Amino acid sequence: MPYKDPARKKEWERLHRPQRLARRRELRQHQVDNMPAPEATLPTHDGVSALLPFVVGLGGLGLAAYQPKLAIGTGGLTLLIAAMLKKGSMWWILGTIVLVLGIFFLWIDRDEESTPKSA
Prior knowledge:
By secondary structure, this protein is an all-alpha fold. It has two domains: about 1-35; about 45-115, no CATH class. The chain is about 75% helix and about 0% strand. Helix 2 packs antiparallel against helix 3, helix 2 packs parallel to helix 4 and helix 3 (about 70-85) packs antiparallel against helix 4. The model has no long low-confidence stretch (mean pLDDT about 80).
């Protein structure tokens, strides 16, 4: 047996080195091939999350007519969230619309308050 004699063992290892390295590569590749793939963490788009920007937009429009200052805050907050969470363009558009409508309704309310009412 070659493993009992150290000189013969060294000689055997030298002669069989390429086969041993190939076998190790094969085993590593087999291990990688049989490893389960990590689960995808892509966001799913269900009906509720797809409609969320529209619900926020409609709520913002009503809010702009009822409480313009609150609509300005909501629009600004929507833009801030869109920037921080890297949301799509729909969030940016709706945030801008709600912000602009809030400013517009606030401007209209101030004009109505500043005009004198005739009795």
